[in-house]
Design brief:
Oligomeric complex that consists of at least the alpha, beta, beta', gamma, delta, epsilon and zeta subunits. This protein is an alpha+beta fold and 1214 residues long. The chain is 29% helix and 28% strand. The chain is globular.
């Protein structure tokens, strides 16, 4: 049995496979119906409208519907797309046992404990027939897959076969009036639509299940006390063929396998049994220790079964479907139907070689598992699981017509050729490899370096050995380990490249690519099962999953090549053709389009001539390709494919191609795009494009500042006039300030009514005549200037260089630029054409920068004055939006020879992508990701105590350098474990300000403060440790265990100190004081501190006259062998006093004889057997009423929240 999927739930009473999708319905005893995707193991949906157990479910074959029936006597029809129950069919008077859709007609068949079977029309929602005849519960009923028959089983010990042909004819629309009249007459005279064809009697107990064979006239039935019977029928009668005995309890269900000639039965005796349908022999038995089986489903199309039991269900196969094959040049040897077959790729000729299995073997999963071929000796080595693992060696005669010699057999769980005439056999029990010759004689024995459970070919004389946690390459001659690779999962298949330089290690859902010596290259995780794989001629690994053919590049990137209807097993990849075997062992050739991954491979290997050739000749398109090129730093390549102007604009900005960006912005003509163009042009230092972009958006404030830094004072003075015309006082003042025109500033302030400011400005800048005039106007309100201080003049610095662009970046020409230009122009170009702008040739439709018009500011001013004279009724100045701006003489020019380099990925982003630890995410600045990780791992919701630590982690992993006063600071990433020998291209992980050694030092200081009686200080130290641990990273698994142990230690101290401080606050409640002191002694403290707790509790209880309790604490204190003599003497005195009066004056909520834990919030004992909830981080325990609150011990996590556990090391991820 090969288990593919399993669930844990309430008892599963009904199952149904979807015929096309990898879905299964499971109806539970609790009344819930679950819809699962068994290929990825996810719960898709739940349906819970039934009241009571749901015993039957069934998918419709073509519609998005399923039907269910339960103990509430109801049949419900559901639409799984809308997640709604469409309608309910009422009519049964007792439990509904099974329901089923007809494969062709709109019928639903239902069986019930009311001793009837009903056929419903789900379109008209009516009952079209009631089948009566059973005189006990009808346990099941089902349609024949092809004929107009129904079979039913009942506890009246009979199986009945019903003929429904008349009902079918009645359902069809009559062809003419005569037939319609005959139908009406038959209805008037109670014509019977369904008749009993056979009554099968032979069971001695009630029958629980009966089912038709999908193709043959056979019926199988299962009854109480373990009876399974096989029946055959013809047109006139039905009779018993065989009886299968073996089950020790009631048979719950029994069915024929859809693909194989076998019968599968399940029983309440906790077993699944497989029987031969023709010979009646028991083939195999599978048992579970604790679960009885209740329901069985067989997939109608593929080799899958499902069974439901007391605690869930599982989906499984009875036999492995992967064919055993071996590739040899242009030919393929493979096993099919107990024969070895030969397939030639070039001629597609398929022929049978010889039989490889003895006929009559009645056992499952005994077909060949692996096949190895020696081309020079023409020998085949076949391994199977028969008898715990065997191999068979065949020598194929060169003349295929000759008789094949008898095979040579041997024991071994793995066998593989390692040389021309040598093969290796693994003895798993001794971890030895036996090297044998073609006579099956042992030539050499070698002990393996690891306890291997499988071996694979790894080159001549070498073996790849697999264990649970690693694989190694072992040289059998030199007895040396050539390579080793740690793996966290079991490798199932090994696929070598054609040149033996790379190897793909395939597990259940993971692919690891490694070198010839097992040097790790990349790993690829899939959500569904990986089925097979092969290397193509370019070094790309092509593999298949259940649903797709995919590729894996050498750097670990993957993508989908083709979608599959059914799984296939790749045997060879040649060019654009994939040769494969399907599950029926048929050879198939599938043509694929390899353009996408060949293009990506060329980019990866920097073969830019191939890239350019593919760009010219291939139909590469699609958003995914654009996104890929952007992600990999080739936006200029993506720019060549795009026609949408908005996408072209974004790509042009990213690649630094200003000319294309200007052309796209002109076509789009939106303010946001002009603004972004101005930002990029300013970054590149192209001031003329910046000016053009600001003019298009009429952004006069930015234009003013641009003219200031470029020294264009003429245009700046014109902008001041425009602001004056528009009555923009602030604009006037700013422009006057930029120009250094003091008189204009004084005039603007005076006109705006700010006479004191105007007076001060004139006085400071030496305009005495203007200042005197303003003083007369101000009169007594003349502001006084501060005495003894020298005023500083507010004057702008004079521009050193006026106008023109300034080159901020100067880089080499783009990788593809020259090649594509010459390619698009047809090869040779002369020198004049080489100076023409253009990164990508004619296809890019660049903007003619030489003809681009920059607006003259004077034209804006003239137009404004004219508009003011023409129209005074509008109340003033018309904005410049409607002006036709004349061109300026100096046109901005864009140089396309140099492009900006592609911006690299920030180090913080690299850290964030590489790590799944919260501390490293916080150091990278990804606070949201860090908080999500902590919430998922530890249930943390209160992040206020962690805020300062997040900021410390971020600031501690970054530094900043200042080169010049006018240039921005340069951020530097501080990496953990950096050295001068480190590669500059490989980024390490961030340096962290918190480490485990700091916590150990803090722990010692906390111990010291506790011993000194400074409990508040000790509590603050221990709480700081507890809140820092989630942001600590360690290296090894051993350190992880130390961190988890530290969490428990600190938690105990925090809880104990909180209770002790609470006790000291209670002055008027001696009973509660005694209880808290007693609880403190149950915290797991260090021995010196535990003695102090015992002494404190003893003292409190003795003073309160609770002599018996005080004596208990005194005895506990003496058991610790106190080193302080005064403590021991006092304890002995208390015991002597208590011996005279062993009673308690007050009753405490404390019983030291009954084990308990302390609630971290209410400080009450939770005795063994009582319900409690825990903090997912610090594991403090609480009473159930505290669930959902913030933990009062760690002050971080939510009590009772689901969490995956503390993750503080990369070794835990691996």
């Amino acid at each position: 049995m090969l288990t593919k999927f399993k669930t844990r739930s309430n008892r599963v009473k009904g199952l149904s496979f979807h015929s096309k999708r990898p879905w299964i319905l499971a109806s539970l005893h609790s009344g819930v119906i679950q819809l699962w995707d068994y290929s990825v193991g996810t719960l898709i949906d739940k349906f819970d409208e039934h009241q009571g157990p749901v015993r039957g479910v069934h998918f419709h074959t073509s519609q998005p519907l399923f039907v269910s029936g339960g103990d509430d006597y109801k049949i419900k029809v559901w639409n799984y797309k809308t997640h709604w129950c469409l309608f309910t069919l009422l009519g049964h008077l007792d439990y509904v046992r099974t329901v089923q859709f007809h494969h062709e007609y709109p019928w639903i068949l239902s069986a019930s404990d009311d001793q009837t079977i009903r056929i419903w029309n789900w379109q008209s929602r009516t009952c079209v027939s009631v089948l009566t005849g059973h005189n006990h519960y009808v346990m099941c009923a089902s349609f024949h897959p092809k004929d107009d028959l129904v079979v039913s089983a009942s506890l009246d010990q009979t199986v009945r076969v019903w003929e429904i042909g008349s009902l079918k004819k009645k359902t069809l629309s009559p062809a003419n009036d005569i037939m319609r009249l005959a139908e009406i007459n038959s209805d008037l005279f109670d014509s019977v639509d369904v008749t009993v064809k056979y009554v099968l009697e032979g069971h001695e107990r009630g029958v629980n299940w009966a089912a038709f064979h999908p193709n043959l006239p056979l019926i199988v039935s299962g009854a109480d006390y373990g009876e399974v019977m096989l029946w055959r029928m013809n047109e006139t009668k039905a009779w018993e063929v065989d009886t299968f005995l073996g089950h020790m309890n009631n048979v719950s269900s029994v069915m024929f396998h859809a693909k194989q000639d076998i019968i599968v039965s399940i029983s309440e005796d906790k077993s699944i049994r497989v029987w031969g349908a023709t010979k009646g022999a028991k083939i195999q038995t599978f048992r579970r220790e604790h679960d009885r089986f209740w329901s069985l489903a067989v997939h109608p199309e593929i080799n899958l079964l499902a069974v439901g039991h007391d605690n869930g269900m599982f989906v499984f196969k009875l036999e492995r479907e992967r064919p055993a094959f071996a590739l040899s040049g242009d030919s393929l040897f493979y096993a099919k139907d107990r024969f070895l077959r030969y397939y030639e790729y070039s001629t597609q000729k398929d022929s049978q070689v010889f039989p490889i299995m003895c006929p009559g073997i009645q056992s499952l999963n005994q077909s060949p598992r692996t096949l190895s071929y020696s081309q020079t000796e023409n020998a085949v080595l076949i391994c199977s699981d028969l008898d715990g693992g065997t191999y068979e060696l065949y020598i194929i005669p060169k003349d295929r017509s000759d008789v094949v010699q008898d095979e040579m057999r041997g024991k071994g769980c793995s066998a593989v050729f390692i040389a021309r005439n040598r093969f290796a056999v693994l003895e798993k029990s001794t971890s030895q490899v036996l090297v044998k010759n073609l006579k099956n004689e042992v030539v050499e024995k070698s002990s393996l370096p690891i306890p291997a459970d499988a071996i694979f070919y790894a080159g001549t004389g070498n073996l790849l050995c697999r264990s649970e946690d690693k694989v190694v390459i072992f040289d059998l001659q030199q007895r040396l380990v050539l390579g080793e690779l740690q793996i966290p999962f079991v490798i199932r298949y090994v696929v070598w490249s054609n040149d033996m330089e790379s190897v793909a290690l395939l597990s259940k859902d993971t692919i690891i690519i490694a070198s010839q010596k097992l040097a790790f290259q990349c790993v690829l995780h899939e959500r569904i099962r990986v089925k097979s794989g092969a290397w193509d001629d370019n070094g790309v690994f092509i593999y298949t999953t259940l649903n797709h053919i995919k590729y894996c590049l050498p750097n670990g990137e993957s993508g989908i090549i083709k979608t599959l209807d059914v799984p296939i097993y790749i045997t060879k990849v040649s060019g654009n053709t994939i040769f494969c075997l399907d599950r029926d062992r048929k050879n198939r050739a599938i043509t694929i389009n390899a353009t996408e991954y060949i293009f990506k491979l060329a980019l990866l290997r920097k073969r830019y001539d191939h890239v350019m050739n593919m760009i010219k000749n291939s139909q590469l398109c699609g958003q995914a390709m654009f996104a890929y090129l952007q992600q990999k730093g080739f936006p200029e390549v993506a720019l060549h494919f795009v026609e949408d102007e908005r996408i072209r604009f974004n790509l042009a900005l990213e690649s630094g191609n200003i000319s294309v960006a200007v052309a796209s912005a002109t076509e789009i003509n939106e303010k946001d795009h002009w603004y972004r163009l101005g930002v990029e042009a300013l970054r590149q230092g192209n001031s003329r494009i910046v000016e053009f972009a600001y003019q298009q958006t009429k952004n006069f404030e930015r234009l003013s500042f641009l003219y200031l830094i470029t020294g264009n004072l003429d245009k700046l003075s014109k902008l001041m006039k425009i602001a004056e015309v528009k009555n923009n006082v602030m604009g006037q003042f700013h422009n006057a300030l930029y120009l250094g025109d003091v008189k204009a500033r004084v005039k603007i302030l005076e006109n705006a009514g700010h006479l004191p400011l105007a007076y001060i400005t004139a006085s400071v800048h030496g305009l005495n005549d203007v200042a005197e005039r303003l003083a007369i106007e101000l009169g007594d309100n003349v502001p006084s200037l501060p005495e003894g201080k020298t005023p500083s003049l507010l004057m702008p610095p004079p521009p050193i260089m006026c106008g023109g662009d300034w080159p901020l970046l100067r880089v080499m020409k783009g990788i593809f630029e020259g090649g594509l230009e010459s390619a698009n122009r047809g090869g040779d170009v002369d020198e004049e054409e080489e100076d023409v702008e253009g990164d990508w040739g004619e296809g890019l439709d660049k903007f003619d920068v030489d003809g681009m018009e920059n607006t003259d500011i004077e034209a804006i001013l003239d137009g404004a004055e004219a508009a003011e004279e023409e129209d005074d009724e509008e109340g003033g100045w018309e904005g410049p939006e409607d002006l036709e701006l004349p061109p300026e003489l100096d046109s901005p020019k864009v140089s396309s020879v140099f492009i900006t380099p592609t911006q690299g990925m920030p180090v913080s982003q690299i850290w964030s992508q590489k790590s799944s630890l919260a501390a490293e995410q916080a150091a990278a600045g990804s606070f949201d990701t860090a908080m999500r990780l902590l919430h998922r791992q530890l249930g943390i919701k209160n992040f206020a105590p962690l805020k300062s630590m997040f900021l410390d982690l971020f600031s501690g992993s970054h530094s900043y350098l200042r080169s010049f006063s006018s240039s921005p600071v340069v951020p530097l990433a501080i990496e953990r474990g950096w050295s001068e020998s480190s590669s500059p291209n490989v980024r390490g992980l961030p340096a962290l300000v918190f480490d485990f050694s700091q916590l150990e030092a803090k722990l010692k200081s906390g111990y010291k403060a506790t011993t000194a009686g400074k409990l508040s200080e000790a509590l603050r130290v221990f709480l700081s440790i507890l809140q820092t641990i989630p942001l600590v990273v360690v290296e090894s698994r051993r350190e992880v265990d130390d961190v988890k142990e530290l969490v428990i230690i600190v938690k105990e101290y925090v809880l104990g100190l909180q209770m002790e401080l609470r006790r000291r606050e209670l002055k008027d409640d001696p009973v509660r004081q005694q209880e808290l002191a007693a609880y403190f002694t149950h915290c797991k403290l260090q021995t010196p501190h535990l003695r102090l707790a015992y002494f404190s509790a003893m003292t409190v209880c003795y003073k309160a006259k609770n002599m018996a309790t005080a004596a208990h604490f005194a005895r506990s204190l003496l058991d610790t062998n106190p080193t302080i003599e005064s403590q021991a003497r006092t304890a002995r005195q208390v015991m002597q006093a208590a011996d005279r009066n062993m009673t308690d004056a007050t009753t405490l909520n404390y019983d030291f004889r009954n084990p308990f834990v302390i609630c971290g919030s209410t400080y009450v004992p939770i005795y063994k057997g009582q319900k409690d909830v825990a903090c997912p981080y610090c594991t403090a325990r609480f009473v159930p009423s505290q669930e959902g609150n913030i933990c009062s011990v760690c002050d971080l996590a939510v009590i009772g929240a689901d969490a995956s556990g503390l993750l503080c090391s990369a070794s835990q991820v691996r």
